[in-house]
Amino acid sequence: xxxxxxxxxxxxxxxxxxxxxxxxxxxxxxxxxxxxxxxxxxxxxxxxxxxxxxxxxxxxxxxxxxxxxxxxxxxxxxxxxxxxxxxxxxxxxxxxxxxxxxxxxxxxxxxxxxxxxxxxxxxxxxxxxxxxxxxxxxxxxxxxxxxxxxxxxxxxxxxxxxxxxxxxxxxxxxxxxxxxxxxxxxxxxxxxxxxxxxxxxxxxxxxxxxxxxxxxxxxxxxxxxxxxxxxxxxxxxxxxxxxxxxxxxxxxxxxxxxxxxxx
Amino acid sequence: xxxxxxxxxxxxxxxxxxxxxxxxxxxxxxxxxxxxxxxxxxxxxxxxxxxxxxxxxxxxxxxxxxxxxxxxxxxxxxxxxxxxxxxxxxxxxxxxxxxxxxxxxxxxxxxxxxxxxxxxxxxxxxxxxxxxxxxxxxxxxxxxxxxxxxxxxxxxxxxxxxxxxxxxxxxxxxxxxxxxxxxxxxxxxxxxxxxxxxxxxxxxxxxxxxxxxxxxxxxxxxxxxxxxxxxxxxxxxxxxxxxxxxxxxxxxx
Amino acid sequence: xxxxxxxxxxxxxxxxxxxxxxxxxxxxxxxxxxxxxxxxxxxxxxxxxxxxxxxxxxxxxxxxxxxxxxxxxxxxxxxxxxxxxxxxxxxxxxxxxxxxxxxxxxxxxxxxxxxxxxxxxxxxxxxxxxxxxxxxxxxxxxxxxxxxxxxxxxxxxxxxxxxxxxxxxxxxxxxxxxxxxxxxxxxxxxxxxxxxxxxxxxxxxxxxxxxxxxxxxxxxxxxxxxxxxxxxxxxxxxxxxxxxxxxxxxxxxxxxxxxxxxxxxxxxxxx
Lengths: 263, 253, 271
Fold this sequence. Notes:
The structure holds three protein chains of three kinds. By secondary structure, chain A is mainly alpha-helical. Chain A contains ten helices and no strands. Chain A has helices at 14-34, 38-54, 61-96, 105-118, 123-134, 138-162, 167-174, 179-213, 221-230, 234-262. In chain A, 41% of the residues are buried. Chain B has one domain (55-252): MetI-like fold (Orthogonal Bundle), CATH 1.10.3720. In chain B, helix 3 (55-87) packs antiparallel against helix 8 (169-203) and helix 8 (169-203) packs antiparallel against helix 10 (224-252). Chain B is globular and about 75 Å long. In chain B, 47% of the residues are buried. Chain C contains ten helices and ten strands. Chain C is 36% helix and 23% strand. By secondary structure, chain C is an alpha/beta fold. Chain C has helices at 2-11, 55-62, 85-92, 110-115, 124-129, 134-146, 162-175, 192-209, 220-226, 249-256, and strands at 14-24, 30-40, 44-48, 70-75, 78-79, 95-99, 180-184, 212-216, 229-234, 237-242. In chain C, the strands form two sheets. Chain C has a six-stranded mixed β-sheet, sandwiched between helices. A four-stranded antiparallel β-sheet of chain C has the order 2-1-4-5, with helices on one face. At the A-B interface, helix 1, helix 2, helix 3, helix 5 and helix 6 of A face helix 1, helix 2, helix 3, helix 4 and helix 5 of B.
């Protein structure tokens, strides 16, 4: 309390001013580019709402039992198969993509970059391309989500492996075990709960994604959604959305309960 | 021993589930055998000889995608604030508003973005504007949830301190909670922007503007050299946007 | 020292009076039992006791962070047990409080933090827009000068050391223009020299502004060094109330229910 320093000059808030200016420029540019217009929006809103209103009940239940259940089951199957196999493929790659276990820097860098690349491909685009190569149906959808689950699980798992305790692995290394054996017995037991948790997480995302894959012919409930939209049958679109929502919620709840138990 | 038992049990559960889920897929050796050469031809057409003459149109549509993502994300970032406040558990003593908020946000998040795109196309016509609105509404779901969680983790000490000064709840929100959470909100918005650059390139397939629009067009025309250029350009854009946004987010932390 | 304190107490106004105050928490734990105390303008009071003895509860009933469940507390002429939210806020404006963990808005500047002390007196629309008046800003600058860290006014609060952050918190409390200053374990997170510096600052403020200051401390030696009056709590009841200098070993043992140990001492200031 003995010294009384003076009030310094107020520093100019460069970060906020420049940030705001850049944001403003980008927004004006985007408003022009996308022809965004509140009057047009107000004009069109009744039509948008009519679409949603058309989706509301009463819903004919025979549509659910007759047409909706089989593709819904197919969607779940696609998501299940893709997340399980994708996760299995991701396991060895995750080891290669973590600096703790990777045999050398090159393997680490290359797998990391490949994983990043895999995750940039939009799954719907991938599904479309696979559908033209392998023919339409559940199979290309499965392949697309396989790639996606592989990418997600490998990335998350690699990050987890980086944080593990190296002790057990080093202990096994001193016995002269190979790197694969070190990973199997020194690392895997530490990350097994996370591995299952990430697989379930990928499954949750896959169920959501699998519902739209059908729009490009890749099977599941999306195929039905597409035809119902094409026939302007909004009531059925509403049922499909509601049932999908229920299934997704159910799976999310189940899966997050299991995940919380694990980690 | 017990570990071995557990592994066996897990395998006993996993194997039938996997078999069941693969069963309906109609995967025959013939199909796979036919598919790979076709995929190979496609990939060669796409990436060995991309159609560079098509670049001006690709560029124009890519810019449109970025604009859709930027404006849509910004609108969502603003619109999500009241939802986030509503859904946060620690602002009001009653659990009712937060539960309502969380259910609402969950519903928005799960509603397929593609359907939103269809709905806005109905109201606004084909084009980027419908895409902006679909992205904006859909993104509220995730952003509102992230906002709410951030508000729930706000430092209780500072709130307590301001409570003891006799400041009103509104003043506390403005001067204590907001300064603490705002940088993180910006960071969430940037992260969502990354995701929206991806989805803005997808919703175009149904006619909501952006790179997806020509993607759908060329896909239907089976013009793989042009499709290749579109895919390369999209991935490159996503990578660049990701790394820029990651840099800014690091700064914000 | 004791003559000064009793002298002040005799003619100074009573700002806080506990009347048969009890506090039982919702989980059934009784933190205060039938407390009767009067605190006066300009007194520097230190509350000591083991953790769980009710020190924190005693301080927090004064600004009703913890509501009394029996009896009442009269604060600045208002019985606070059953007052409305609006009146509670009005009373709180004149009570500054500082905390063990400083409780600053970490990402805001030091000046912005001090200004939050003015929020209670600001109309809502001004508070919402962050439009402090010129006199608010002048006062905040005066408070920062007072605690000697005006040069940090535009630093982010979390860039400061612990001692500096606690001074910002003191400046924030001063900006309220309080008549009472509460300090809940204000030095528990600080190293000994800084802790003594903060205690000296608090003491000087109390003297110069005639502030009633009530400080919770874990360390008995610090209590004796700074307090005009020490309140010893054990299991929610007052077992000692008198000048710090007069405390005997028997008084310690009544408060702590055991012999004094080295870890009850903070150690002397390294002046």
